[in-house]
Amino acid sequence: xxxxxxxxxxxxxxxxxxxxxxxxxxxxxxxxxxxxxxxxxxxxxxxxxxxxxxxxxxxxxxxxxxxxxxxxxxxxxxxxxxxxxxxxxxxxxxxxxxxxxxxxxxxxxxxxxxxxxxxxxxxxxxxxxxxxxxxxxxxxxxxxxxxxxxxxxxxxxxxxx
Length: 161
Known about the structure:
By secondary structure, the chain is of the alpha/beta class. It contains nine helices and four strands.
């Protein structure tokens, strides 16, 4: 179950607080939520990426235990890279993922930070997959539009090995 995807935040006005309620409901129902967080282009250009991630983690995971955080998936999806053909560089993705993992360690404990899967989502394509997922804090990819083309998706999966 994907929660907090940028399109839902933009089109339906989902907030960090509604994401928080959905995380709680998903966990209560025995589902493993994939929680999306990420910044807009304006936030990135203003140097606010890390503070946006902090806000989304703090508010979105309020009341969630470290054990519960360790069992979920966080997808860092820079909003500016979704459906635009632009993608974060491997270094940008690593910086965001390392920051997310650092905050999880600080706020939820080392086991939560080590067990939580932090994946990248934002114009994942066959030609950028290997670089992105080779980063030490990138655990995988959330593939969007490229999953609709079987050849493209097959190439992404093949290059992920």
